[in-house]
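Researcher: Structure for this, please.
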Amino acid sequence: MKRIVAPRSKSYEHRFLICEFLSKLDEVNCVEDTKDQSKLINEKNEAIENDAEDIIATKNCLYEIGQSLKNGNQKVLLDCNQSGSSLRFLLPIVCALGLKADFIMRGRLAKRPLDSLLNELIAHGCKIDVSDDVLSTERKLKHGVFNLPGNISSQYVSGLLMALPLLSADSEIHVKKPLFSMPYIDITLDVLRDFSISVSEENHDTEHIYRVKGGQRYILPKEYVVEGDWSNAGFWFAAGILGDEPLVIEGLNPCSLQGDRKIVEILKKMGADLRFVTDKGKPVFEAYPIGDKVLKSIEIDAGNIPDLVPLIALLCCLADDKSKISGIKRLRLKESDRVVAIENLIGRLGGSIAVSDDTIEIDGIGKERRLKGGKVTCFDDHRIVMTAAIASLRCEEKLLIYNAKAVNKSYVSFFDEFDRIGLSGNCLRK
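Model: Predicted structure, token format:
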């Protein structure tokens, strides 16, 4: 059986890098030897092989913030590339540190929603200006009560959760329900606990409240391993199911807080043969080909697992009957209008898909048909590229994917692994 090691969880890695940096603030501010200080910052932010573009953006921004602090809080230029996580996490932190900064936003990032967070930062003492693709901020963030909607982006909450412990006094975050993507907030809280940051929670009928003590210190844990990424591992589960031979997927935490762990439950409902076993004392998952069998149709609410929707939509396209995926409205605000991208991909492959405001319905092609193949554009969206690659396993003709390099945003080595385990025979990239 061929084996795949799941890539590091981008969700955990973002948060760990930021918290690690915040645990070093005293060193950044107090080390007198410029050479030693620069070495500290460089070592901790140096890009390593196979870093996703989002992670590189965060590392580069942290480096620049460190340089600014070292040089007396001079104005800092922060290039977030297309990373929503980098912008939404670091903006409140820069404000909490009282730095002047220009955030550079590339691609669709400037068009993705941010108003709710900006309004709260402004209400608590910050001056923020947005012009074209540059967001400028100055003045120090004040403590208090922050009110946020829960149905736009959990990253607003996560960014504040990491920033507010730096303030001198206590704060609260009131999140109006419904609260989508809560597993991502749980990941933030998990990492904060590892860094000795205390946050209390209250769950009410109409809102969720987070209470954050001010004046806390981030303390670097003695040991820390970033767990594997469940959202990207989902593509390998699908590859094992749709391919000709089983796959072993390593590096995943079966008890992870990542919401995308739900992919196992979803695939089993669709009739997939997935097995959790222990191999040399470590947990691994085995995914077995369905062969001539057909996946079962499903109905799911994807509100907490938006990153899985492109892959699930593809699998529904291969199922025996009509499937329904709800809770997809926020997908229009991703790296692409991901609803349009999914609709385009499935349509070009010969599938039948109907889209409404918050729902996708897909007619499965059943046992007698295969997908078409041909040429597909992926809207510069990494998850659409990977979904198309998996689709090629069930295409009658070769599938040519345009702008396949978009995978670099989250999974640089995806196609290296795809080729290594022998899946690329029907998949061309340009």
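Researcher: Any notable elements?
Model: The radius of gyration is 22 Å. Residues 230-429 form a domain with the UDP-n-acetylglucosamine1-carboxyvinyl-transferase; Chain fold (CATH 3.65.10.10).
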